[in-house]
């Protein structure tokens, strides 16, 4: 179950990269219609050139995602664990839905808001795949909280801001030059203004992440949680450097592609922090045990 769920997670992050390749090579309308590639063919034709190959290749990845999703569903059924079955079904249904939205982007000639929704759905699918992967390695007992409520609240605020950073990045993309096709429209917003808003949210996210790391260390939280917060900060800093360099070098395509991959890594790193703050035992807790919302005593504080 876990290897299949991990493969599904990696493939959905990879979809961001292939989507970036489509947009950055101006191949967004390489297949000018949907669900067919042309009016007469479901596949690309030699006359459509490299743009058709790139766009059609991105469409083919959907079938890989569907195959992995159904494999996860079959594995979840074999475990007879309700949580895994529900999560696998959600992912399996989300992938065709994502494909339909991708088709709408083509039929609307790459409307930037529809393209943005296409990306946000990928973020949601990544969250579902990550949850499936982590739940496959846990038991089905009631969650045991490993840190006090204020720390959990800070982690959820950090997660919300992380999503806001990604959403703002989508808006920045919709205002920039890499539209996916030479004739595709932009959202009409001022690139400098929306980029500044995006950057401000990035600074807020890094500040919250650093505060969360210090709080986890001060309270003697589990090492896995402290390590997850440190990894998140490192990924954010790397992503921030790429973002600033690409902005001041007029958005070279390789850096833009790396930045889009980085958005998927920031999101998965954020989810890793959330999941590190609780655990589930292998068997349901006995009635005489403490309530599920009671915080487990922390370990000794971590020293420098």
Describe it:
The two termini are 38 Å apart. 69% of the residues lie in helices and 1% in strands. Mean pLDDT is 87; it is low at 288-294 and 299-304. A two-stranded antiparallel sheet has the order 1-2. The protein contains 8 helices and 2 strands; from the N terminus they run H-H-H-H-E-H-H-H-H-E. The chain has 304 residues and is an all-alpha fold. It has helices at 2-24, 49-79, 82-107, 112-136, 149-175, 191-218, 223-248, 253-275, and strands at 144-145, 278-279. It is flat and about 60 Å long.
Distance between the termini: 38 Å
Compute the number of helices. Answer: 8
Strand-residue proportion: under 5%
What would the principal axes of the Cα set say about the shape?
A: flat
Q: State the strand order across the main sheet.
A: 1-2
Structural class by helix and strand composition: mainly alpha
Low-confidence stretches: 288-294, 299-304
Radius of gyration using CA atoms only: 21 Å
Number of beta strands: 2
Task: Write the H/E string, N to C.
Answer: HHHHEHHHHE
Question: For the residues shown, what is the average pLDDT?
Answer: 87
- Helix percent reads 55-70%
| Major sheet | 2 strands, antiparallel
Topology:
Layout: H1 2-24, H2 49-79, H3 82-107, H4 112-136, E1 144-145, H5 149-175, H6 191-218, H7 223-248, H8 253-275, E2 278-279
Antiparallel strand pairs: 1-2
Helix pairs in contact: 1-2, 1-4, 1-8, 2-3, 3-4, 4-5, 4-8, 5-6, 5-8, 6-7, 7-8
